[in-house]
Specification:
Order of helices and strands: HHHHHHHHHHHHHHH
Number of strands: 0
Structural class: mainly alpha
Strand content: under 5%
Shape: globular
Oligomer: single chain
CATH superfamily of the largest domain: MFS general substrate transporter like domains
Length: about 425
């Protein structure tokens, strides 16, 4: 009988490198498609429809994806997901070979890519505590956070260069090659065996109910889920308003500089976690980090100044990998190996469902309520407007302040809940290997 693969950082690093390349390629195509659609049609609505086509499958398929991640071999799930996403990109290349790329075809390929990612994400996150020793779990999650930061910084630069040199076809071809790297790295390693829930006659519906019951029986994790959901709601709203906030008084060049510096901040934060590992007190770090993030968000709204917006934005994106890495360690160690696919998919589904709601509310709140309130003679111009200013963008700034206060309040609520504060001691470690 062949030796079983054992837990080691080597296998994780190989898979992580493949995922880094693959995620960068996916982000590259996202930028390329948005640019292509807008330049070809001039329609913001069509760009938004593509974003919706990517968001909806992730929400709808999350329960099924979590169920499969706990039933099937997770490495196989990841391999098939990469193949499916690569096939979607290949179909776009095929359509371009006829010098035609119908909008419906783009929507369908985007939905397929989103569906593939919906299955890959819980399988990958649930595999990390199987692949790495418990002592290295914090570093591993920092490296996973690093992937997103690198993709945010590198993908726009690559997309711009490739679009100028070879058009959308060059972007899609490179993305297809990155999927190949992801498949090859996964195929080159074996995952150690892990505990599975082998309850007979399971259904997707029963698995979804299981995830809810699992968290309800662990109030600390249940509270933590909804605290993060509230933070995601506020952050999603302010994220979509950052561009109009800056452009209300400054230029596209300044905006690009802020976004680039923010991406660098995210990379620095991820490198810190990757180098030094998880903090000693996980929940304390999470709640303190959420509280500071709220204050930084609020500060960004107090004045129409590039410096006042740029510094909090960079610090916020630097802090995010540290906070999220600590949170990921909590979930990966306190949820049983055989349940992580379903529980992680529930987390993802809630987060993905909340973000579009916040984005849809942000525009009407800014345009119809707060911007008029801070215009000359507006309802808040002579009160709050005396402090943060009046005119274009100040209503958006006030939304940043309100959102930041809301985030800070959620941190206080979380810390005052004993079941959340004592998660590390109250719940035993159920996953993670020495």
């Amino acid at each position: 009988m062949p030796d079983q693969p054992t837990t080691s950082m080597r296998s994780f690093v190989i898979v992580w490198l493949g995922q880094l390349v693959s995620i960068t390629g996916t982000t590259l195509t996202a930028f390329g498609l948005q640019f292509f659609i807008y330049t070809e049609t001039g329609s913001v609505t069509r760009v938004a429809l593509v974003a919706l086509a990517y968001a909806l499958p992730a929400v709808a398929l999350a329960p099924i994806a979590g169920s499969i991640a706990d039933r099937a071999d997770r490495r196989t799930v990841m391999l098939l997901s990469d193949v499916a996403a690569g096939a979607a990109t290949a179909s776009l290349l095929w359509a371009l070979s006829f010098d035609s790329l119908p909008f419906g075809f783009i929507l369908a390929a985007t939905a397929i890519s989103s569906a593939a990612n919906a299955f890959q994400d819980p399988a990958w996150l649930a595999s990390i505590p199987v692949l790495v020793p418990r002592s290295q779990l914090g570093r591993a999650n920092g490296m996973v956070q690093l992937n997103q930061g690198v993709a945010i910084v590198a993908a726009p630069l690559l997309a711009g260069a490739l679009l100028a040199a070879g058009g959308l076809r060059a972007v899609l071809l490179l993305d297809l090659l990155t999927f190949g790297v992801g498949v090859l790295t996964l195929a080159s390693v074996r995952f150690p065996p892990y505990a599975r829930d082998e309850t007979p006659d399971r259904s997707v519906r029963s698995d979804s109910g299981f995830a809810w019951r699992y968290l309800l029986e662990r109030p600390g994790l249940f509270w933590l889920l909804w605290i993060y959901s509230g933070v995601n709601f506020m952050m999603s709203m302010t994220n979509v308003l950052l561009i109009p906030l800056v452009l209300s008084f400054s230029t596209e060049t300044a905006l690009g500089a802020i976004l680039s510096l923010g991406g660098i901040g995210a990379i620095v934060g991820s490198v810190v976690v990757s180098t030094y590992g998880e903090p000693k007190h996980l929940v304390r770090t999470i709640m303190l980090g959420i509280g500071v993030s709220g204050l930084l968000t609020a500060i960004a709204g107090v004045n129409a100044s590039i410096l006042v917006i740029a510094v909090p934005t960079v610090l916020l994106l630097l802090l995010n990998p540290i906070v999220n890495g600590a949170s990921q360690v909590v979930w990966q160690t306190k949820v049983a190996e055989g349940a992580q696919g379903r529980v992680f998919s529930l987390r993802r589904m809630i987060a993905q469902a909340i973000s579009p709601i916040a984005i849809l509310l942000a525009g009407p709140l800014a345009d119809n309520l707060f911007e008029p309130a801070f215009a000359s003679g507006g309802g808040l111009a002579s009160s709050v407007g005396e402090i943060i200013g009046t005119g274009p963008g100040r209503g958006i700034g006030f939304l940043f302040i309100l959102g930041g206060i809301g985030i800070a309040v959620l941190a206080v609520i979380g810390w005052t809940q004993p079941r959340v504060r004592n998660i590390e001691t109250e719940l035993p470690d159920l996953a993670g290997r020495d």
